[in-house]
Automatic annotation (TrEMBL), chain A:
Keyword Transmembrane: yes
Principal place of residence: membrane
UniProt protein name: ABC transmembrane type-1 domain-containing protein
Alphabetical list of PANTHER family matching this protein: ABC TRANSPORTER PERMEASE PROTEIN, DIPEPTIDE TRANSPORT SYSTEM PERMEASE PROTEIN DPPB-RELATED
Subcellular location: Cell membrane
Record field: transmembrane: 9-30, 101-122, 134-155, 167-189, 196-220, 226-246, 253-270, 282-301, 308-325, 369-387, 431-451, 471-495
Organism for this UniProt entry: Streptosporangium pseudovulgare
Source organism phylogeny: Bacteria, Bacillati, Actinomycetota, Actinomycetes, Streptosporangiales
Domain ABC transmembrane type-1 residue range list: 95-492
Annotated membrane topology: Multi-pass membrane protein
From TrEMBL, chain B:
Organism: Streptosporangium pseudovulgare
Keyword check for Ligase: no
Membrane topology term: Multi-pass membrane protein
Gene3D superfamilies from the UniProt entry: MetI-like (1.10.3720.10)
UniProt family annotation: Belongs to the binding-protein-dependent transport system permease family.
Protein name: ABC transporter permease
UniProt-annotated location(s): Cell membrane
Positions of transmembrane segments: 38-62, 117-141, 148-169, 175-196, 227-248, 284-303
Keyword set, alphabetical order: Cell membrane, Membrane, Transmembrane, Transmembrane helix, Transport
Annotated ranges, domain ABC transmembrane type-1: 113-303
Signal peptide: none
Length: 502, 319
């Protein structure tokens, strides 16, 4: 295993080195770096040209320039761009913005995509499956920039206008209720009667929900409140227990229910801590939650100790997330007022010079991240959905799954223990591929939404035929892709015993 | 399978009221493809777009049937709004409207679609040829050749496609669509190479290859006449998907200003040119977008149909 990793590391290093060479040379030949100065009519034209040629070493052959760049990189110096500004500070500013965008999009796409993919595989050839497949094809065919501009118009501008008086028109409530009913109906297996009942339940539940939200003007001053947190927490407790251990065992169920109740109580007790926390405190709370839940599972789990610990931790983290969300939502009306009631932003990564507490700055980032992430997520979401569906279907048709069913295991165990784990192995390879796509997508999204991130640095550098910023961009993204590729390879080898043990 | 059943019992089938027809591989593939409704619809839409784009404004000096030009300006009719209406159905003088200086937008969109399609086809062809050859040679010869070729592929995969495409687009974008298509094709071949290498690795161990080698067939002939035809399914499917991706890639590059440059036009370039006009002249934004989606979606559906037709294992037989 160690030899495998070491060999992979060495190969990755040389692959990256070759890639930087290609990008450097191609960028240097991409055009004329003095183009704008040649059209300059000022008397200093010649001095400016001489100065820039000197700075960019235009009289040195490209290969030597590359070696010079490489030498500086080894010493940790990113160099200057063609106007003489140091690249390192520009990069560090750009990095955090883009990292937020790429990370948020990737994590969301992976979780949501895999869940949808697995459900549509388990419900193959149902209405839900066909809808998901069709939607995935649409997503594959949508030009990212076009979607982004659309989102800007219809979600940002019109949604912000709507938020001033958030009453959902009856027609929209009807449509949403119908949609809810259709989702419920499509997800249910069984004869027509069961599906009709599910459809009716979905219709009534979502209809009531949106009517209540509209009548109480929930969107103007949103929040969950402790009773709702408790209700959601208990529901997830039951759900996670059913998924991991099954409801017939008392131990795990008590552990998860306890986790949910403690979480809801903490939302009240922790008021002073949560008033204006730091990320460090939030991280500490997260670790504390995990520790407490593991303890609960261990103490109450009984014979299903391992399942109980997993389920309790999942429930605890989920309830914690609800508390976090609740706090965030409570800060919404104050935040919305401070940005002139335009919370969904279309330009940049944050409101310039914005001052606020933890929750308000958090909302500010979220409001700026919302649209670019929505645009960016579409393609990856479709990829993960399709891929995990195919992989899951393949696994579900294997002989060992039939064996598991034949020996009388409950469907939950068959799906989650036997199929799901093996079905996910091929998805790891997808992550590395997809990341390169997301980075490319980030270049486009940043352009539409005016983020001054890495994508902006790249396109600007490229337009100016300036290898410095382009290489800084590629150094970060290329390394990320290579590292992810490597992690995927190692993970694959680790997860698949056929490779690990050979 | 059908062949042997046919040969063994030609009468008994007919007696029981079943007739077994022998079909070639191509016939089976065609039958499965035409039974895939989405693929068929995709094919029709794609055919329509193709015919519309190339006959309407003319191509390569041959005049088309549309009487407006995509270059000359005209007087603004109806403030440049689209004159197309469905009820009562009328095309009007400028069905897609006019841009801010009065150029007929239908002609412009058609010209853009032409250019985008040319780029997409070139990318598909170049990527397929390069990827197939690299994958075939690496998979067949194995050893050092494979190591070198696969490392080159790794290097290409490390660079996000949009990044290398943008760098090349900056250089070749204003040289016209043909050079742009060719260089973009050189950026997306690695996927095809990896797929085909996998196919070759398994096929080269088959008996028919061993037989061919035993009678002294030269390697080149084995690769191109014996193994390659067996991978035609993989090649056709991924060539189709590469073409669909190329449509989106070209439009994204042109949108960033790194692909097709004005005064030449493409669907992405049109969206880039009029992106700020969205609030005042939304149709300048809608039409090219709709055409990009129509082209990409129909090609994707064709690809899906082809995949099912060549490899029906994943699909339940439709009753």
């Amino acid at each position: 295993m160690i030899v495998f990793i070491a060999r992979r590391l060495v190969i990755s290093f040389f692959v990256l080195l070759a890639a930087t060479f290609i990008i450097f040379v191609l960028t240097a030949f991409a055009g004329d770096p003095l183009e704008d100065l040649r059209q300059d009519n000022s008397p200093q034209k010649l001095t400016k040209i001489a100065e820039r040629s000197e700075r960019m070493q235009l009289d040195v052959p490209v290969v030597l320039r590359y070696l010079g760049w490489l030498g500086r990189i080894v010493r940790g110096d990113l160099g200057v761009n063609r106007d003489g500004q140091a690249i390192a500070p520009i990069l560090s500013d750009a990095l955090s913005a883009t990292l937020q965008l790429v990370l948020a999009a990737t994590v969301l796409a992976i979780t949501v995509g895999i869940v949808i993919g697995i459900i549509s595989a388990l419900r193959q050839y149902s209405g839900f499956d066909y809808t998901v497949t069709f939607a995935a094809f649409i997503c594959f065919s949508l030009p990212l920039f076009w979607v982004a501009v659309m989102l800007k118009q219809y979600v940002a501008i019109e949604f912000n206008n709507w938020l001033k008086d958030p009453v959902i028109p009856p027609v929209v409530i009807g449509a949403l209720a119908l949609l809810g009913g259709l989702v419920f109906g499509a997800l249910t297996v069984g004869d027509r009667r069961r599906r009709l009942v599910a459809f009716a339940v979905g219709l009534v539940v979502s209809g009531t929900l949106f009517t209540v939200l509209s009548v109480t003007r929930w969107f103007a001053d949103p929040g969950l409140g402790t009773p709702l947190i408790l209700a959601f927490g208990l529901a997830t407790a039951v759900g996670f227990t059913a998924l991991t251990a099954g409801l017939q065992y008392r131990g795990p169920l008590y552990a998860t229910l306890a986790a949910a109740v403690i979480g809801a109580v903490c939302s009240q007790v922790l008021g002073p801590v949560l008033a204006d926390p730091t990320w460090l405190e939030i991280g500490g709370l997260l670790l504390l939650t995990i520790a407490v839940c593991l303890g609960l599972g261990y103490a109450l789990g009984g014979l299903q100790r391992r399942q109980a610990m997993t389920a309790a931790t999942l429930t605890g983290v989920f309830t914690g997330a609800m508390v976090f969300l609740d706090r965030m939502l409570q800060a919404f009306s104050a935040y919305s007022a401070s940005v002139r009631h335009r919370p969904v932003s279309t330009i940049g990564a944050r409101t310039p010079n914005y001052q606020g507490d933890f929750w308000q700055t958090g909302l500010d980032s979220a409001g700026h991240l919302l649209l670019p992430t929505m645009a960016l997520i579409l393609i990856s979401l479709a990829t993960y959905t399709r891929f995990s569906r195919a992989s899951m279907l393949e696994v579900m048709n294997q002989d060992y799954v039939r064996t598991a069913r034949a020996k009388g295991l409950p469907e939950r165990t068959v799906v989650l223990k036997h199929a799901f784990r093996n079905g996910l192995i091929p998805v790891t390879t997808m992550m590395a591929f997809d990341l390169a796509g997301v980075i490319g997508g980030a270049v486009v999204t940043e352009n539409v939404f005016g983020w001054r991130g890495m994508g902006f640095m790249f396109t600007k550098g490229l337009q100016e035929v300036d290898p410095g910023p382009v290489m800084a961009f590629f150094l970060v993204t290329g390394t990320t892709v290579v590292v992810f590729n490597m992690i995927a390879d190692i993970l694959y080898a680790y997860l698949d015993p056929r490779i690990r043990l050979s | 399978m059908t062949l042997s059943a046919d040969a063994q019992a030609p009468d008994s089938g007919a007696e029981q009221g079943m007739t077994i027809v022998a079909r070639t591989q191509a016939q089976m593939v065609r039958r499965r493809f035409f039974r895939h409704r989405a693929a068929l619809a995709g094919m029709i839409v794609f055919g329509l777009v193709l015919v519309l784009a190339f006959t309407s404004v003319g191509f390569a000096g041959i005049p088309g049937w549309w009487d407006q030009s995509y270059i000359t300006t005209g007087a603004l009719v109806n403030q440049g709004k689209p004159t197309l209406s469905l009820a009562p159905f009328t095309i009007g003088e400028h069905p897609f409207g006019q841009d801010d200086i009065g150029v007929d937008y239908f002609a412009k969109t058609m010209r853009g679609a032409q250019q985008s399609l040319i780029v997409a086809f070139l990318v598909g062809i170049v990527a397929t040829v390069v990827g197939a050859v690299v994958g075939a040679v690496a998979g067949y010869y194995r050893g050092r050749v494979e190591a070198v070729l696969m490392r080159v592929t790794d290097v290409m995969i490390t660079i996000p496609v949009l990044v290398i495409a943008a760098v090349l687009g900056r250089r070749f974008g204003d040289a016209g669509v043909v050079p742009l298509g060719i260089v973009l094709g050189l950026t997306i071949w690695p996927t095809m190479a990896r797929l085909l290498r996998g196919e070759f690795l398994s096929l080269r161990e088959k008996e028919f290859v061993e037989a061919a080698r035993a009678i002294g067939t030269p390697a080149r002939r084995i690769i191109f006449r014996h193994i390659l035809p067996n991978t035609i399914g993989v090649i056709v499917v991924s060539a189709t998907l590469a073409t669909a991706n190329a449509v989106l890639l070209e439009s994204a590059l042109s949108f960033l200003g790194l692909g097709v440059q004005a005064p030449d036009t493409s669907l992405g370039q049109l969206i880039q040119e009029y992106r700020t006009a969205f609030s005042t002249r939304p149709w300048l934004f809608w039409w090219p977008g709709i055409f990009i989606i129509a082209i990409a979606l129909s090609i994707n559906f064709i690809g899906d149909g082809l995949r099912d037709a060549f490899d029906p294992r994943q699909t339940r037989v439709r009753a």
